[in-house]
Design a protein that fits this description.
This is HSP20-like chaperone. The protein has 4 helices and 22 strands. It is mainly beta. A hairpin with a 4-residue loop joins strand 21 and strand 22.
């Protein structure tokens, strides 16, 4: 009876352990910004499908044993020391030092929200693989693997129906892993691969034609960080090589709408309620080579406990230390007489 190899990057069926060689990845997967790969290899790819099809780098024999998960390294404790002290004597926690312009004056103003024209939107029209089906008269080679996310079925000559897959995209946020179409999140990569599909349909063995692949835009998740000052919230969205003319950035009093096209064929699309109100006309953004930075003007000056409504865990806030007593960062403690 044939068995399936459990080594990462292999997954082939075998009858005897010494029957054929096994090429696998001994290291854990690595996901950094939009890049994906294995710690034992130097190669990095952007597409999740390309990541799953990366050939192994180590030769061995097949096995059915499940590798024990590697314990996560403990995170270093956050430092309570300020990042720097500005010229007014204020300690800044977590905020980067503002960069001056080349002329030595004030930093250049960043543009406000823009919307792409209908022409640029049409140029990047998405071909949704979840909505595609192979033609009924298509000649499918035996052994072809289904291209839908979460499905590993191969064509045996008749199995065209019964596909169980994920119509969404893979999401890797901090240590959690899952699919955008499902609520389930797991920690281990092996468990992520085992998350059952949430939609049924026909198998997709061939996929889009070569001339259609240039129009395929993959929806991905981008890492988002933020910190805050008493009057603003600065958000960094790590979308590399973002195309400003083909992206949408909209500020509203209580929500943020983003549709960022980056790396040519990757789209980060999200809309969420903000933790607190902002002033849209005073909010700005700046497109950089490795990220998009948003400056949200607070509507009430209160500290935010998170970026999205309902989140907990405050971002870094800037405290003043100019006073000698009676203020945060003061240099003396004053006890009030309670008589």
């Amino acid at each position: 009876m044939s068995q399936t190899c459990t080594r990462k990057g292999c997954g082939k069926k075998f009858d005897r352990v010494d029957e054929s060689e096994c090429w696998y990845h001994p290291g854990p997967p690595v996901f950094h910004d939009a890049l994906k790969g294995w710690s034992c290899c130097e190669k990095r790819v952007i597409s999740f499908d390309d990541f799953l099809s990366m050939p192994g780098c180590t030769k061995g024999v097949h096995t059915t044993e499940v590798e024990a998960p590697t314990p996560a390294a403990p995170k270093p404790a956050a430092s309570a020391a300020p990042t720097h002290v500005d010229k007014d004597g204020k300690e800044v926690y977590g905020a980067p030092v503002p960069q001056k312009s080349e002329e030595g004056g004030a930093p250049a103003a960043v543009p406000q929200a823009v919307k792409p024209t209908q022409q640029t939107i049409n140029e990047t029209k998405k071909v949704d693989l979840a909505l595609l089906d192979d033609p009924e008269d298509a000649q499918i080679p035996l052994g072809a693997k289904c291209k839908r996310n979460g499905c590993s079925v191969t064509f045996d000559g008749s199995n065209r129906d019964g596909c169980v897959f994920h119509p969404g995209t893979a999401i890797f946020h901090d240590a959690s892993k899952g699919w955008s179409c499902c609520k389930r999140r797991v920690l281990e990569f092996d468990e992520f691969l085992k998350i059952p599909g949430c939609k049924t349909g026909k198998h997709l063995y061939l996929g889009p034609k070569e001339e259609e692949k240039t129009n395929v835009v993959e929806e991905v998740d981008c890492r988002t960080d933020f910190y805050q000052t008493p009057s603003t919230v600065i958000v960094s969205i790590f979308a590399k090589q973002c195309e400003e003319s083909k992206s949408t950035i909209e500020f509203y009093e209580e929500k943020l709408v983003l549709d960022l096209l980056h790396l040519g064929t990757k789209r980060f699309k999200t809309e969420f309620q903000l933790f607190g109100p902002i002033v849209p006309e005073k909010s700005k953004y700046k497109v950089m080579g490795t990220k998009v930075e948003l400056t949200l003007a607070k509507g009430n000056g209160l500290s935010w406990g998170g970026l999205r409504a309902g989140e907990s865990g405050a971002g870094m806030i800037r405290f003043g230390v100019s006073g000698r007593t009676g203020t945060i960062g003061g240099k003396e403690i004053i006890y009030r007489n309670q008589s």
